[in-house]
Each structure stands twice: as structure tokens, then as C-alpha cells.
Amino acid sequence: MIGRTAGVERADMVVVGRGLMGTACARHLAEAGCDVVLVGPDEPAERTTHEGPFGSFHDAGRITRSIAHDPVWARLSTRSIARYRDIERRSGIAFYTPCGGMMAGPVQGPMSGFTQGFLSCAAELGLIHERLEGVALAGRFPMFDLPEGTVAAFDPSGGVIDPRAMRRAEEALAVAAGARVIAHHVTGRTGGSLTLADGTRLEASRVVLATGGWAAAAPLTARRPALRVFLRTIVLAEVAEVEAARLAAMPSLIWVPEGGETDLYLLPPIRYPDGRFYLKIGGETESPEARDGAVLNDWFRTDGSADAGRGLVAELRRVMPGLDIRATRTGACAVSFTATGHPYAARLADGVTLLTGGNGAGAKCADEIGRLGAVAALGGAMSAEGLGTDFAARFDPA
Ligand SMILES: Cc1cc2nc3c(=O)[nH]c(=O)nc-3n(C[C@H](O)[C@H](O)[C@H](O)COP(=O)(O)OP(=O)(O)OC[C@H]3O[C@@H](n4cnc5c(N)ncnc54)[C@H](O)[C@@H]3O)c2cc1C
User: Fold this and answer.
1) Ramachandran sector of residue 123 (left: φ over 0; alpha: ψ -120 to 50; beta: rest)
2) What is the mean pLDDT of the chain?
3) Whose CA is nearest to atom 27 of ligand 1?
4) Tens digits of per-residue pLDDT, 57-66?
5) Same fold, 3-58+163-226+339-384 and 98-161+228-338
6) Is the Cα torsion angle 172, 53, 272, 166 positive or negative in sign?
7) Ligand 1, CB within 6 Å, residue ranges
């Protein structure tokens, strides 16, 4: 910490956004010897009265997998997964359950490109996976009733992560390396001068903006990043402990339902903070979009869409007809899609680095995306990272 005078804190590097990307970025910067302050609100104890901002990691489960239908995402995930155990060991916080991750889809019809995508990507990158179809698929995962003609890739390094715990682990390592944490949000920025919600002013030599969907909905950049922020609904299906035990061999699943126009995702039973076991299902063809922070924050105060929830419960009953569901409830979240289909990790003109754009898939690879944010903030070149793209940012037309 460079210093503090009369209500003004000074820092070399300030990371704004204590979410998955920002916290990982702060960890990599602090462990590289930088003087780092990490700024952002805690997860609210009471969601319905919280003014915002929220976070797209306020949950106990996210799918992780190396396989993907885009080599860039597959590389981001493979590198992150390779570091999970080290982060767990050094922080003392467990977050990774390698119960296997599976992607499944049709080889014919309008969605066959999805299936060809993950199969050829796995082959091209030499990712360890098992190709399963027909009797072998049904025999291996009898809990699923997948459509006729489905081909699947099973990734043994995949499974689930606890995003809350992963973020805590990254923050613990950042703090152990000297980073400081301020649990407030930023309400304004002029160059390296930041104003926080409690009136504190932070003066930074360099700033990383890692505010997720709020990067577009409530921008802290002069121009609005080209980011579409969609308001999503998820369903949590409660099962008894004995049912969770029966499904102990269940992997996480991304599949295309019969006649589906998009893929859905499903997580195996996870014990949530309320002590109960829930499977989680999500994925929507269409969902509302947030163009401003008020709309985005309002959404997080709701339980999501009841209609979307009903559709997801019907799909869950279709893919797992034998599942003994005790109760279901819905929840709200938001995903941020970039114009490039890849995250933005880019140093902008005024010494600010923009780090955002999970595209609905950024949790599993947040550690590598965070590392790229650190590389960009320190002036490094993305072309040297060997990931197959430059993570350049795009902005809305002026
Ligand atoms: C329903 C759902 C399911 C998903 N499932 C998966 C999955 O299975 N696997 C997967 O890999 N990914 C998944 N994702 C995507 C993943 O959760 C996101 O890509 C990831 O959380 C994005 O990380 P982030 O750091 O960009 O944003 P967040 O994690 O949202 O963090 C942004 C942080 O910035 C803070 N912030 C905002 N404005 C300010 C401000 N002005 N000042 C300070 N702080 C601020 C916020 O409070 C928040 O803490 C899912 C997302 C959703 C919504």
C-alpha cells in the first residue's frame, strides 16, 4: 500500500470487481509482487434489499470441463483446471469436484454443428475424453435418458466447482501475497481516481476493471464495452440425501434435448449452504437483456422467471425421468456475451485494463482469464500467450 492521506488511499494497482475474474487477477498481480488493492462488495446477506451490484458467482455450483466447441475456451479451461489443486492446497479451501463433465448432442440436424464442434476440438487439442453413444452411453450413465442418436464426450477432468469457495481461495492467496481488500463498490472513475460508495477516494497508478455484466450496464470506461448482458433463470431441484447418494456417479452434463434449438446444462446433486442437496438446471433460447445497472440489479433481487422455470423443470423430468424431486425453486443470474465470443482482457489507452466477458462460461477458467488480466495490466502482449486470440476489447459505436 503506497499510502493514505486525508480520506484518499493511494495504490499502485487497483482491481475493481471482487468477482471470479477480478479476484484471480488480483491474486496473480500480488503474487507477481505488485502492490494491489481489490475493491468490490461482499455477496449480500439479504439479496432482496441489496442495492447492488451483485455477482454472477453467487452460487454453490458451476460446471467445469476442458472440452469445449471452441479451442480458445478449451485452452483457457485446461490451464485453469491444471492449477485448481495448487490453489486449493495453498489456500486450504477446497472447491473442485472432478466427478466428470460430459457434452452431448445430435450428429444430425440443425444442432449437429454443436456436437461436431466439441468432438473435433477435443481431437484437435488432444484432450483426454471418451466418446460414448448408444448402448455404451446408456449403460455408463443410466440416470440420463438422452435423445436417440446422441453422441457424447466424457471428460474425466471435468465436473463441478464451487464458485464462492474458488473466489475465496483466490482472495486468500492474494491477501497472503500482500493485497488489500476494500468491500465497497466504485461509484465513479476519472483516470486513476476512483470514488467508492462510502465516499473514500482511491488514487491508483493502474486500474483493472473486472466488473462482469456491470462493465456494460454501469460502465466505468469512457465508452461502453460491446457486451450483451442476458438475464437468466435457473432451477434448483431438491432431492433427499439418499437420492443424492444414488446419483454419486452422475457427471455434469451439457446436452441438446430432442428437437432443441440450444444446449441446456445440468449439475449433479450438490449440498448447498442450507444443508440440502440440489441439482441445478439452466439454459434458455431467449431471455431478457439488461442495458442499464438498475435493470440488472432489479433482476438479481427477483427469483428469475417462473415461466422459464417451468420449462426447465419439464426438461429435467425429460432427461432424468427417474429422478425423485422433493421440491423446486428458481433463481436469477446474468451472463455477459462479448462481440468476439471470447473474454476481453485488454489494456486501454489511459492505463486502464478491461477484464470482462464470461460468455456464460467464465467460471471454470476464471483463473486463467484473471492471469491474462494481470499480463495486460503489466503491459504484456496477449499474442505471446499461445491461446489463439488476442482478447482485444470491442466497444459500442460512439
Ligand atoms: C446462471 C449461470 C450459470 C453459469 N454456469 C456456468 C458454468 O456452469 N460454468 C462456467 O464456467 N461458467 C458459468 N457461468 C458463467 C460465470 O459465472 C461467469 O462467466 C463469471 O462469473 C464471470 O466472472 P466475472 O468476474 O466477469 O463477473 P462476476 O463473477 O459477476 O464478478 C463481477 C464482480 O464485480 C462487482 N462489481 C460490479 N460493479 C462494480 C463496481 N462499480 N465496483 C466494484 N465492484 C463491482 C460485482 O459485485 C461482482 O462481484 C454461469 C453464469 C450464470 C449466470
Assistant:
1) alpha
2) 96
3) 212
4) 999 999 999 9
5) no
6) negative
7) 16-22, 39-41, 53-57, 62-63, 185-186, 210-212, 214, 232, 234, 265, 282, 333-335, 356, 358, 360-364, 366
374, 23 Cβ separation under 8 angstroms? no
pLDDT in tens, 155-168: 999 999 999 999 99
CA 19 to centroid of ligand 1, rounded, Å: 6
List % helix, strand, coil for the chain (3-state, nearest 5).
Answer: 30, 30, 40
Query: Residue 1: is its pLDDT beyond 70?
Result: no
Residues 396 and 221: their CA atoms lie apart, in Å, by: 12
Q: Could you tell which of 56, 81, 227, 368 is best to mutate to test the pocket of ligand 1, judged by most ligand atoms within 8 Å of the CB?
A: 56
pLDDT digits (tens, 9 = 90+) for 211-224: 999 999 999 999 99
Q: Which CATH architecture has domain 98-161+228-338?
A: 2-Layer Sandwich (3.30)
